[in-house]
């Protein structure tokens, strides 16, 4: 079963368990009944921000729509897009790790999805510092990267490389989703150190997705 079909089935099951009709879900989400019907049948893809809207109406966490324990074969070096686990590492930030075997390599590639207005509600943005280097490439949307006292606006195709001992973080000031490709050296799953945005579990299998901004210091070194 592909991911769209799996998500659609879960939405339908949640909706019917709450005795909610498609029309009622449509009215609460401002999405058409035709779109919702297609989505429940796995015939339509769905954006993360739209899925977050539906999750809020149904009273569940965003990541409840994704498989919590994807089957991984670490002997296969190919990471397929349809098999990426989604791990919520902040209220509006979702992480995908682009490796089956995070403990075997010196660098860590990841994709982060920043939902609309991510990191903009805080009066004082939490800044991160750690050893090594960090590369950020914008795949989608417009990101604001804070490095020290400087802010940079990056568009799709733009990139920035920083020394990670400079305080840094990112924001999404728009009402569209932002997707970032990041590469960290050294790999925080191999060299435990505070200052990284990390999930509760390095393999994305933890059942509690709502703890915020855990760091590599919470893990034993591999």
TrEMBL record:
Transmembrane segments: none annotated. Residues 11-65 form the HTH cro/C1-type domain. Pfam families: Cupin_2, HTH_3. Keywords: DNA-binding. InterPro entries: Cro/C1-type_HTH, Cupin_2, Lambda_DNA-bd_dom_sf, RmlC-like_jellyroll, RmlC_Cupin_sf, TransReg_Diox_bact_type. It comes from the Bacteria. PANTHER family: HTH-TYPE TRANSCRIPTIONAL REGULATOR, TRANSCRIPTIONAL REGULATOR. This is Cupin domain-containing protein.
């Amino acid at each position: 079963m592909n991911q769209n079909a799996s998500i659609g089935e879960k939405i339908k099951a949640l909706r019917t368990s709450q005795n909610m009709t498609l029309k009622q879900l449509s009215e609460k989400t401002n999405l058409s009944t035709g779109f919702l019907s297609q989505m429940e049948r796995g015939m339509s893809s769905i954006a993360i921000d739209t899925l977050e809207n539906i999750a809020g109406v149904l009273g569940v966490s965003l990541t409840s729509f994704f498989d919590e324990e994807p089957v991984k074969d670490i002997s296969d070096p190919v990471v397929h897009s349809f098999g990426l686990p989604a791990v919520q590492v902040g209220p509006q930030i979702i992480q995908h790790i682009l490796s089956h075997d995070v403990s075997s390599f010196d660098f860590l590639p990841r994709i982060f999805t920043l939902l609309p207005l991510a990191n903009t509600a805080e009066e004082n943005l939490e800044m991160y510092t750690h050893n090594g280097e960090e590369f950020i490439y914008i795949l989608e949307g417009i990101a604001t990267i804070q490095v020290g006292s400087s802010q940079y606006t990056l568009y799709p195709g733009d990139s920035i490389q920083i020394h990670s001992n400079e305080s840094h973080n990112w924001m999404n000031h728009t009402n569209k989703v932002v997707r970032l490709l990041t590469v960290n050296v050294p790999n925080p799953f191999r060299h435990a150190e505070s200052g990284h945005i990390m999930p509760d579990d390095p393999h994305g299998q933890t059942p509690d997705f709502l703890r915020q901004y855990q760091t590599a210091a919470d893990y034993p070194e591999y």
